[in-house]
Write the structure tokens for this entry.
Amino acid sequence: AVVALNAVWIAVDVEVNSAVILFQAPIISQLLEQLFCIFFVAEWLVRFLAFKEKLSSMHDAAFKFDTLLMVLAVFDCWVLMVILAIWLSVDPRVVHNQALVQCLSLVRL
């Protein structure tokens, strides 16, 4: 249900949010992105901890797929924001390179 809600949110956010990078978006966009990311990380952690043998998680195809999705969500929500914040402090013109930023942000789709 949360995955479907996240998909709907992404569709709505793409239509109403004109900010190129997350920390320039309206506060509601930032908040919801953070909440979805926290939820997906928590869900992944619960699933990982449920394995008796932690290495056996690497044999579960669904868990590996969820790991990939979680890593991409973390990259988009947290890692990319740190990289862009540092980059903007060095070269503020990067925000005008919308194609680059949008390509990097497409990983969440």
Remarks:
- Residues 29 and 58 are 33 Å apart (CA to CA).
- The chain is about 70% helix and 0% strand.
